[in-house]
């Protein structure tokens, strides 16, 4: 029976790799450098049903979305596991079933970018693999390290050479997770099909040679099975790693390894019978024509090719009686290390046991490969994979692997390489030209933009002296361009910023505000503050809701909705109305001490209801907000008490904050040094900022990025207690604070850092930027919108100036009641161009506390 399995078609389409790894024809050669075909995560050749995971954060971040370079489909751009309770426990994994054994030399990982809406990635991960789906092995590099450095951002793919490569049917990517962090991954595997079918080999442990005082180790250092009683069993290792040794066994292809590294070897002194026994187990019964053994042959150092080999065959439980014996032709010292072909005479077997007899004191092997049917099965001999022509006589013991067909193949490869080199040179040459042209046009464009912004800056500085005093930007340019008709088109403006060129995909989506009033109501404010973007076309309320809501987390318990008594409407948000309700028995239900209005049993709560006509995106985001809030517990974060998600309308029950949102609260306030009701003193205002900083400090300790910190998203309770809210949405009321993207999503650009706007980067440091703006709002009692004199387009242009950092950026001015120190040391430091130079929330909190202490001291 012909056992040969061709490479998958997609593997053949990536011949370009051969160009980069031309050593195929050079001897000695390293096969791992040619076997690097993408195995089909990106291209979709690997089917959705073959990708699974330990858990998923939501239906839209299921395992099937974990495909490298694939942002499309109905998902949220990557696989994201659920948050785990124990840090670094490697419990979470994304599993790929390759449907057959593969030789894997390279892996690639990427985070969740989702066109700038995601910023989750795995900084470190491990790999586990299995050949039978039952026994799993943790991959280790040649130094024994298991942890692989992963991604540094959400968009770049990071490739990692698996040194040593692995032979696997199933591979698991195991991100290092943290209870507080959402980690997302997209992956690809590179390699080729492992046609040998060799599942494991069993050999005696290698020996150590002392050569002129030098320790030479011939152990199988990458063997992935077990070692017991000086025998290695149930694994694969150096004999199948696609790397074969040099003539001088003291040297190696691999950098920085010990002498003898490439070889597994034995001294005849410990084998009284004069032979070394090896057993090879295969995936199924095969028809073997030959075996090729790469042997060292340094006769001068007592190393020689085996003198004789006798192979036994087993298809069932017993070894067959008639072995095949073969004696290699007499070699001499002129032969270096080489493959010795051993004919196996079309014997059928699932296991082969070979006894290699010493030809000298030492016997050193670096690779063993098998040919079943008419094909060579060890992919490490890819160059010979075509097998002999149909009329080729059976394997001849003297047959050498370097036959004429190899030469023809090499000739073809050289021709392909030459063609590819020409194409690449042409492409590179074109790119250099384009770059030069682009540079020239960008210089022109920069001048134009600078001049424009100078004009605008001048214009609004005339109207608003405080702004201009901070920005300090006056026209210093001789060339002044009148505003053209297209000026109001923000996407064009942004596209002209040099930084836009870096992130054209992200910013290319910006469009004019108000340009799509027909966009759905809900769509006006999604994506902003969630850690994930919204969407799940496969969302189903009954099934998924409960799986999302019922988890290990007790804070997400279902509360009987009939026990909620409506009192009054508190407000309306994107999801629907927020009601003040009395929750009967909630105190007992929560089984904890809660201070609240109302009688002993009932509790006043705020109930946020999802409007009944909400689409599936809104439902999904509503549930995501529940998931996020249920995991947060801090005095300055609004607490989710319970949920009602058994049927429509979905409700979340949160603690009631008597004084509504901070923006509305402050708008009604007047500033006075010593405060009364509706009058706020500096100390009270800064006390509010301290609480927000404290809440943010908690979020940052969890690596949680809020993305939409602003006074409108903070709530005020009794005694000026402030709590951060809105982990999902913004509100209609504040529509003007947001800038529309693609009619679907909007961005709070006046609170966003330059890198969030231009590069789509949301980090703790961009939250710090938003905190600076929030502090500014507080100290101006929310009497005006940040940069109120600038249009949205001008705000974005100003962002470009922050990026250019030529001193032309306009900062928010110092609020009247703000001490100089708080403005210059704190507020301005939140808006530093370099995100790393911005203070942490810990530092902000401390600084604000000190400011409060100072004020108290003064008073
Ligand atoms: P959404 O997130 O759907 O946009 P919000 O959470 O912003 O809705 O709520 C809308 C309004 O309801 C808020 O401006 C506030 O006045 C009121 N509100 C929301 N939650 C509470 C609460 N826990 N306590 C008191 N009022 C609240």
UniProtKB/TrEMBL annotation:
Q: Which InterPro entries match?
A: DDR1-2_DS-like, FA58C, Galactose-bd-like_sf, Kinase-like_dom_sf, Prot_kinase_dom, RTK, Ser-Thr/Tyr_kinase_cat_dom, Tyr_kinase_AS
Please tell me one Gene Ontology term that the record gives under cellular component.
receptor complex
* Residues that span the membrane, as ranges: 408-429
Q: Which Gene3D superfamilies match?
A: 2.60.120.1190, Galactose-binding domain-like (2.60.120.260), Phosphorylase Kinase, domain 1 (3.30.200.20), Transferase(Phosphotransferase) domain 1 (1.10.510.10)
> What membrane topology does the annotation report for this chain?
Single-pass type I membrane protein
Kindly list the places in or outside the cell where this protein is found, as annotated in its UniProt entry: Cell membrane
Reactions catalysed: L-tyrosyl-[protein] + ATP = O-phospho-L-tyrosyl-[protein] + ADP + H(+)
Question: Where does the secretion signal sit in this chain?
Answer: 1-25
Name of the protein described by the UniProt record: receptor protein-tyrosine kinase
Organism name: Kryptolebias marmoratus (Mangrove killifish)
């Amino acid at each position: 029976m012909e056992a040969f399995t061709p490479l998958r078609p997609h593997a053949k389409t990536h011949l370009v790799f051969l160009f980069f790894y031309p050593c195929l024809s050079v001897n000695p050669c390293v096969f791992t450098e040619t076997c690097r075909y993408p195995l089909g995560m990106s291209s979709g050749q690997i089917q959705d049903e073959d990708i699974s995971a330990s858990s998923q954060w939501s239906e839209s971040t299921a395992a099937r979305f974990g495909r490298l370079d694939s942002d499309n489909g109905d998902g949220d751009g990557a696989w994201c596991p659920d948050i785990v309770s124990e840090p670094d426990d490697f419990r979470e994994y994304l599993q790929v079933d390759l449907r057959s054994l593969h030789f894997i030399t390279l892996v690639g990982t990427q985070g969740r970018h989702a066109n700038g809406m995601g910023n989750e990635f795995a900084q470190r991960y491990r790999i586990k693999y299995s050949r039978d789906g039952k026994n799993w092995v943790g991959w280790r590099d040649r130094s024994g390290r298991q942890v692989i450095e992963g991604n540094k951002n959400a968009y770049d793919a990071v490739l990692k050479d698996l040194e040593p490569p692995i032979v696997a049917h199933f591979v698991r990517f195991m991100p290092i997770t943290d209870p507080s962090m959402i980690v997302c991954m997209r992956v690809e595997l590179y390699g080729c099909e492992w046609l040998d079918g060799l599942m494991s080999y069993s050999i005696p442990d290698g020996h150590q040679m002392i050569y002129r005082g030098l320790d030479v180790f011939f152990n199988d250092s990458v063997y992935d099975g077990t070692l017991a009683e000086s025998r290695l069993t149930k694994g694969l290792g150096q004999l199948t790693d696609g790397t074969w040794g040099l003539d001088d066994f003291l040297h190696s292809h691999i950098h920085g390894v010990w002498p003898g590294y490439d070889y597994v070897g034995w001294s005849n002194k410990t084998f009284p019978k004069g032979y070394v026994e090896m057993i090879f187990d295969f995936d199924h019964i095969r028809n073997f024509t030959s075996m090729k053994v790469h042997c060292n042959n340094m006769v001068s150092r007592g190393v020689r090719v085996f003198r004789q080999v006798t192979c036994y065959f087993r298809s069932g439980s017993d070894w067959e009686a008639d072995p095949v014996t073969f004696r290699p032709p007499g070699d001499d010292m002129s032969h270096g290390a080489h493959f010795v072909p051993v004919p196996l005479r079309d014997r059928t077997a699932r296991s082969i046991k070979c006894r290699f007899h010493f030809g000298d004191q030492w016997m050193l092997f670096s690779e063993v490969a098998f040919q079943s049917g008419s094909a060579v099965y060890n992919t490490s001999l890819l160059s010979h994979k075509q097998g002999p022509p149909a009329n080729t006589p059976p394997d001849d013991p003297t047959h050498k692997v370097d036959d004429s067909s190899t030469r023809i193949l090499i000739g073809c490869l050289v021709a392909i390489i030459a063609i590819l080199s020409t194409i690449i040179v042409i492409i590179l040459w074109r790119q250099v030209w384009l770059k030069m042209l682009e540079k020239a046009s960008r210089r022109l464009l920069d001048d134009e933009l600078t001049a424009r912004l100078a004009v605008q800056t001048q214009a609004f500085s005339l109207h608003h002296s405080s702004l201009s005093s901070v920005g300090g930007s006056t026209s210093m340019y001789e060339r002044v361009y009148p505003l053209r008709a297209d000026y109001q088109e923000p996407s064009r403006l942004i596209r002209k910023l040099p930084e836009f060129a870096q992130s054209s995909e992200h910013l290319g989506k910006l469009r004019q505000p108000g340009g799509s009033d027909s966009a759905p109501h809900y769509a006006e404010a999604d994506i902003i503050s969630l850690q994930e973007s919204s969407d799940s076309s496969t969302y189903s309320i009954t099934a998924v809701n409960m799986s999302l809501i019922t988890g290990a987390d007790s804070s997400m318990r279902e509360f009987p909705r009939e026990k909620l008594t409506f009192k009054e409407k508190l407000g309306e948000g994107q999801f629907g109305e927020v009601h003040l309700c009395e929750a009967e028995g909630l105190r007992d239900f929560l089984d904890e001490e809660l201070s609240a209005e109302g009688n002993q049993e009932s509790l006043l709560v705020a109930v946020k209801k999802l409007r009944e006509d909400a689409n599936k995106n809104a439902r999904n985001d509503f549930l995501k907000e529940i998931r996020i809030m249920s995991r947060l517990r801090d005095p300055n974060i609004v607490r989710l008490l319970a949920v009602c998600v058994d049927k429509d309308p979905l409700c979340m029950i949160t603690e009631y904050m008597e004084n509504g949102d901070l923006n509305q609260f402050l708008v009604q306030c007047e500033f006075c040094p010593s405060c009364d009701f509706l009058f706020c003193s500096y100390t009270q205002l800064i006390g509010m900022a301290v609480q927000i900083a404290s809440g943010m400090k908690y979020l940052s300790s969890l690596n949680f990025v809020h993305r939409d910190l602003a006074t409108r998203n903070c709530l005020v309770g009794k005694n000026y207690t402030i709590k951060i809210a809105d982990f999902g949405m913004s509100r209609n009321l504040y529509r003007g604070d947001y800038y529309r993207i693609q009619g679907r999503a909007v961005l709070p650009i006046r609170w966003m850092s330059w890198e969030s706007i231009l590069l789509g980067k949301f980090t703790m440091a961009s939250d710090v930027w938003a905190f600076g703006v929030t502090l500014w709002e507080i100290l101006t009692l929310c009497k005006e919108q940040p940069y109120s004199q600038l249009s949205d387009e001008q705000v974005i242009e100003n962002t470009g100036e922050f990026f250019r950092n030529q001193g032309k950026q306009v900062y928010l001015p110092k609020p009247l009641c703000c001490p100089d120190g708080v403005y210059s040391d704190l507020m301005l430091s939140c808006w530093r161009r370099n995100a790393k130079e911005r203070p942490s929330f810990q530092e902000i909190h401390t600084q604000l506390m000190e400011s409060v202490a100072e004020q108290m001291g003064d008073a």
